[in-house]
Design a protein that fits this description.
Blueprint lengths: L25 H4 L14 H14 L3 H16 L1
């Protein structure tokens, strides 16, 4: 008696047609925006919040602050 080979669900199934790559190159996905270095004074509680949140999320706190400010500026700018 022949044993049927079990289909691997991770392998392509059926009649497949390749499609061209439609994604832009990585450098176009997130265009680099000009940044300007500044000095800013934050109250201790605010800085502690961003550092704590960044630490739990595996992010850098300065980048997180930039993203929050950028979102605020886009919404109200």
């Amino acid at each position: 008696m022949k044993h049927k080979k079990a289909k691997d669900i991770n392998e392509p199934q059926g009649n497949l047609t390749p499609i061209p790559d439609f994604l832009p190159p990585p450098e176009e996905l997130l265009p680099i925006e000009e940044t300007i270095k500044i000095t800013i004074a934050l109250d201790a509680k605010t800085l502690k919040f961003f550092k704590g949140y960044a630490g739990k999320s595996g992010l850098k706190y300065q980048r997180l602050i930039r993203q929050v400010l950028k979102g605020y500026a886009r919404k109200y700018g």
